[in-house]
Amino acid sequence: MEKPFYFDNCATTACDPRVLDKMWPFFKEHYGNAASHDHSYGWQANAAIDEARYELATLIGAKEREIVFTSGATEAINLAIKGICDSSDRKLKHIITTAVEHKAVLDTCRYVETKGVHVTYLPVDHMGRLVIDRLREAVQENTLLVCIQLANNETGVVHNLDEVGEWLRKFNIPLFCDATQAVGKIAVDVEQSHIDLMAFSAHKMYGPKGIGALYVNQKVRKRLQKQVHGGSQEMGLRSGTLNTPGIVGFGEAARLCRLQWREDYDRLVGYRNELEIELLESFPGLSINGAEAERLPHVINFAIPGVKAEALLLAVSNKLALGRGSACSSAERLASHVLLAMGAEEERAYHSIRLSMGRFTKQEEVGAVVQILKQQVESL
Ligand code: PLP
């Protein structure tokens, strides 16, 4: 049986074969522990980790010492939010986030609420964009942190944080950014956007699963309390033996993204435009969520009127791998909280489909999508 065409790159990307080649020796030959300071196995692992750290820092405009390796973006998000809340000895603590964050942020916020932290969930406009005035109104004297995603994992809507970050610096409030869907796909520069903490993950940028990072600006380092105790790796912020093969793969994935993201971007925007025109022509009343906002190049989130997303995705599943919004909420079979926050009716929030392309998406695959969908919609 032929494999279905893969259009779920927001859930995870294939690992680039060049990344795998680079990782392989670190399973087989260079298996030393980077914390072993007394022999060449350890030195080799340590040198490879330094190189990877350099690549990650270069990709996002940071310094090497500002990169903390974690097991993925979820852990990095937990470290950022809980770490900032825990280190503050204020009685009244307040943080601000948006209603359209990934569950990793929203659940962590719900958790800190149980510890007495007050959380403001900012609304977005009908295109899923941040309303900066609402943020300005929400900031209080006891605000410890503002958490805003760089790009939305369901709609691909991108938030421009340059202005927000600059404004928050005046109040000395750190900006934490979940950039899991953005790094490696669009230009990300922590200095330019005045980001203080930023989470991202290798498996969304053609690297391996199980490795991610938190960027920690030197200025907020002291305001972050570690969440994992032990051997004090990662500048004391995240203990545990480092995942050398994963980190090496992450570093190579970052290097490749630095060299290739622009080329991928241009090609994927072309595919997206082609697909959107075809979709709109083929299905009367089809709506593209977030269409007027700045978006990631590879994501289309759409709803076909009268068509149940779950039934359609199942019907095409031997030919197309598509998603229903975020992977986490589709497991729970809920309407998308992102689309609801954008003001979509329940029906549309429940039946929207996310199509996400990637570096390995081919023109002929893009050309086949609408035909496959049409056949199934007719038979449904
Ligand atoms: N944040 C966003 C925006 C995501 O899309 C995801 C994964 O889907 C995560 C966080 C969690 O990332 P990880 O799988 O690396 O824990």
What attributes characterize this protein structure?
single chain, about 375 residues, alpha/beta, Aspartate Aminotransferase, domain 1, 2 domains
Break the fold down into its secondary structure elements and pairings.
Elements: E1 5-6, H1 17-23, H2 25-28, H3 40-60, E2 67-70, H4 73-87, E3 94-98, H5 103-114, E4 118-122, H6 132-138, E5 143-149, H7 162-170, E6 175-178, E7 197-201, E8 212-216, H8 244-282, E9 287-288, E10 299-303, H9 309-315, E11 320-321, H10 327-332, H11 337-341, H12 346-350, E12 352-356, H13 363-379
Parallel strand pairs: 1-11, 3-4, 3-5, 5-6, 6-7
Antiparallel strand pairs: 2-8, 7-8, 9-10, 10-12
The structure holds pyridoxal-5'-phosphate.
Pyridoxal-5'-phosphate (PLP) binds at residues 72-74, 102, 104, 149, 153, 178, 180-181, 201, 212, 327.
Task: Describe the protein.
The strands form 3 sheets. A 7-stranded mixed β-sheet has the order 2-8-7-6-5-3-4, with helices on both faces. A 3-stranded antiparallel β-sheet has the order 9-10-12. Helix 1 packs antiparallel against helix 8 (244-282), helix 3 (40-60) packs parallel to helix 8 and helix 4 (73-87) packs parallel to helix 5 (103-114). The protein folds into 2 domains: 5-13 and 261-379, Aspartate Aminotransferase, domain 1; 17-255, Type I PLP-dependent aspartate aminotransferase-like (Major domain) (Aspartate Aminotransferase, domain 2, 3-Layer(aba) Sandwich), CATH 3.40.640. 41% of the residues lie in helices and 13% in strands. It has 380 residues and is an alpha/beta fold. The site of pyridoxal-5'-phosphate has 13 residues, from helix 4. This is cysteine desulfurase. It is an enzyme of class 2 (transferase). Its EC number is 2.8.1.7.
